[in-house]
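Consider the tokenized backbone below.
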């Protein structure tokens, strides 16, 4: 029996292996050039689109099915990107086919061709040049013909030249006077605007980045407003001058129209944005433009880390500490970490920037693995804000605000300034409490007999909503347990703060800014625009992102940090410290010094002390020391195996079977099965098994051995399970 060539295809199915197929009819050979091409194959009684991952041979072709058809002539995923994604599949211990599907925009995942990326323009034909004099003067077709007589005009620019250009164009097209021609995307460069002269620390950073030869990781550690974005812009300009592409990752809330406008104006070329607000077709177009090398600068959120960069020169991860870089379902990758992997494979520098670097990155910088660049002053003349801690114990609070704080707000408003009241809790109040029996309104889909997940009071106290599963319910008229009418919203959310501030400061605008009010990307800018330069109050959660200059903001009041001081999550204090520093950074720019006031019932808390008196780096030192002694990341490496099922016995049985398969000799410690910190969510019971090892290698060695045994477990069929390597939160 002769050997028959086969294709090894990675398919988007939750199975660990790849699948062998015979090449499609009509082209029996399979070559190394096929690797990275998409192909349509039969799978069970379905058809799937997969990616050829390798080639092989078989002496029993009758046992294999033939692939149906190629989707690509050339490999779609080649070289570095495919290699990096293979690495990711191994690291996440996830099926390669699912990783590839995660990396591709939806239309490409479905097998659609790589979209066209050129722009279109209209020109006059020969007949048009000859015949345009015969058009009646002053009509739209005549005016359009006159415009096009000077040369091709891009379709995107035509509306600004002529209202109703489409009808005019159609009329000319009927006469054969015009034609549509393709032009290279973004063929209309503008003059880049000059930026400010860098200060010495910025210059040192710029020199380091532009002088990097090949892969080099940098931590650009600069206080808020120290001019990190200026450093990025200069490094990108240098990269463009070398004819290379740059990729900039930003957190979901950081990618604002203002930020894109700043990039476009300063670089003088189109900047492609990739974010969750785009439709599938737009995403695929940006992906394709990058793959063809046409997109020179791509600015995007988490999944933009999968952008192909055939001429890569620089990767930037702004606000690298931000939690939105971690994908929390499906393939649980971390975009910052994957950017480093890609930078290494591409041989280009990678910049991680933040005013509050993650403890992981600080640890790497201190160990010499990253070049540590620091910007310690605010750019221009802006001075850092003064921070004060207010002890509110035994002070009468009005919806959580102490008299001193209210007086301070009044003072800043009188001076014509703006005030931000920061509260990291959406809604009106966290819980609805019965004053007579202590009942609190639970989410029935997320609670267990032992663990009640409260619903949050919204809509000024009329509606209950669960922030975990989205369930909604009206507020009951009476307590379901004791019948009392004494139901009271407890605790304070942004909605309730807004209501109270409106009462107290009726002559000033009060704007609430949180995920509830700014679901759309430009809504925040519009809301801020209504405030303008006038004195007023902003009430917000951490959604108040950078990218919006608030030069009139002189006072930031932080209320309700106490919940964050006492959380079970080992990352809670890091997150709290980052939030405090970030929100404090919003106060005081340029000519107006800012103040930050923290209200707390725990003025002696060690974390607050260190943070307020020593700053973020002193906090980070203390926190790293604590993590080291407790054996938490970055001094340990974690993986979390989660299982959920309608019946908790099924979830536990699955994890118990996994635990059984762990060899007794391993250096990896395991904890569980135990209930997840949120043991029920949307009707599913959730349990987990935590694996922890001092060395990354030990953890991955165990997972390599373990996972092939987990997939076929009979208990696996009764649960939804997932593996999260380097989990960011343990929920
Ligand atoms: P970051 O990204 O660190 O928050 P930005 O780069 O946005 O800081 O800079 C903050 C502000 O300071 C911006 O308005 C920017 O134009 C200005 N700025 C940055 N660098 C300089 C400089 N060297 N001289 C004067 N102004 C600067
Ligand atoms: Zn009651
Ligand atoms: Zn719920």
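A designed sequence for it:
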């Amino acid at each position: 029996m002769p050997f028959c060539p086969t294709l090894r295809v990675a398919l988007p199915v939750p199975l660990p292996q790849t699948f062998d197929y015979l090449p499609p009819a009509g082209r029996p050979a399979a070559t190394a050039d096929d690797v990275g091409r998409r192909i349509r194959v039969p799978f069970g009684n379905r058809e799937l689109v997969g990616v050829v991952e390798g080639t092989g041979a078989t002496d029993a072709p009758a046992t294999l099915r033939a692939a149906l058809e190629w989707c690509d002539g050339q490999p779609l995923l080649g070289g570095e990107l495919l290699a990096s994604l293979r690495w990711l599949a191994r690291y996440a211990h996830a099926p390669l086919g699912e990783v590839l599907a995660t990396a591709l925009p939806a239309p490409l995942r479905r097998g659609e061709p790589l979209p066209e990326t050129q722009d279109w323009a209209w020109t006059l034909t020969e007949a048009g040049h000859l015949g345009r004099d015969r058009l009646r003067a002053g009509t739209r077709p005549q005016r359009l013909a006159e415009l096009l007589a000077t040369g091709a005009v891009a379709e995107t620019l035509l509306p600004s030249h002529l209202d109703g250009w489409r009808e005019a164009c159609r009329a000319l097209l009927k006469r054969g006077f015009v034609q549509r021609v393709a032009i290279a995307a973004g063929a209309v460069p503008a003059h880049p605007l000059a930026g400010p002269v860098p200060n010495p620390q910025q210059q040192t950073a710029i020199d380091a980045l532009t002088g990097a030869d090949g892969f080099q990781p940098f931590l650009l550690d600069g206080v808020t407003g120290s001019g990190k974005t200026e450093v990025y812009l200069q490094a990108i300009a240098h990269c463009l001058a070398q004819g290379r592409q740059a990729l900039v990752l930003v957190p979901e809330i950081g990618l604002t129209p203002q930020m894109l406008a700043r990039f476009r104006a300063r670089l003088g070329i189109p900047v492609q944005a990739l974010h969750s607000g785009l439709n599938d077709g737009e995403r695929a177009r940006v992906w394709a433009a990058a793959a063809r090398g046409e997109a020179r600068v791509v600015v995007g959120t988490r999944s933009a880390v999968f952008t192909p960069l055939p001429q890569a020169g620089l990767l930037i991860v702004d606000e690298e500490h931000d939690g939105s870089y971690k994908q929390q379902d499906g393939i649980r990758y971390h975009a910052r970490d994957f950017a480093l992997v890609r930078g290494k494979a591409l041989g280009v520098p990678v910049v991680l920037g933040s005013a509050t670097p993650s403890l992981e990155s600080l640890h790497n910088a201190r160990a010499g693995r990253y070049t540590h660049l620091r910007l310690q002053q605010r750019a221009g003349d802006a001075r850092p804000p003064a921070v004060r801690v207010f002890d509110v114990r035994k002070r009468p609070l009005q919806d959580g605000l102490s008299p001193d704080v209210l007086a301070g707000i009044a003072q800043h408003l009188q001076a014509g300034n703006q005030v931000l009241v920061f509260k990291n809790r959406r809604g009106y109040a966290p819980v609805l409490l019965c004053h007579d029996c202590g009942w609190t309104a639970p989410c029935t889909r997320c609670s267990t007999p032992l663990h009640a997940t409260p619903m949050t009071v919204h809509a000024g106290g009329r509606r209950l909503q669960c922030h975990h599963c989205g369930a909604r319910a009206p507020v009951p008229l009476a307590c379901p347990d004791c019948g009392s009418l004494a139901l009271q919203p407890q605790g304070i959310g942004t909605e309730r703060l807004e209501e109270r501030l409106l009462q107290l400061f009726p002559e000033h605008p009060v704007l609430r800014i949180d995920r509830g009010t700014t679901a759309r990307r430009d809504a925040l800018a519009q809301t801020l625009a209504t405030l303008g330069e006038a004195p007023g109050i902003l009430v917000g959660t951490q959604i108040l992102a950078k990218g919006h200059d608030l030069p009139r903001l002189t006072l930031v009041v932080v209320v309700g940090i106490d919940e964050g001081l006492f959380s079970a999550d080992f990352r809670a204090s890091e997150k709290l410290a980052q939030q405090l520093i970030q929100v404090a950074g919003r106060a005081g720019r340029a000519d107006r010094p800012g103040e930050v006031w923290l209200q707390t019932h725990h003025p002696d808390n060690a974390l607050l002390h260190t943070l307020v008196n020593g700053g973020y780096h002193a906090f980070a030192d203390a926190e790293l020391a604590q993590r080291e002694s407790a054996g938490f990341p970055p001094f340990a490496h974690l993986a979390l195996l989660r299982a959920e099922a309608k019946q908790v016995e099924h979830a536990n049985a699955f994890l118990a079977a996994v635990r059984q398969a762990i060899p007794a000799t391993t250096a990896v410690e395991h904890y569980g099965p135990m209930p997840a910190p949120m043991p029920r969510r949307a009707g599913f019971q959730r349990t987990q098994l935590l694996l922890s090892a001092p060395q990354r290698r030990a953890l991955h060695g165990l997972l390599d051995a373990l996972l092939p045994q987990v997939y076929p477990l009979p208990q696996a069929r009764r649960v939804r399970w997932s593996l999260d390597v380097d989990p960011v939160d343990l929920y």
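DSSP finds 22 helices and 30 strands in the chain.
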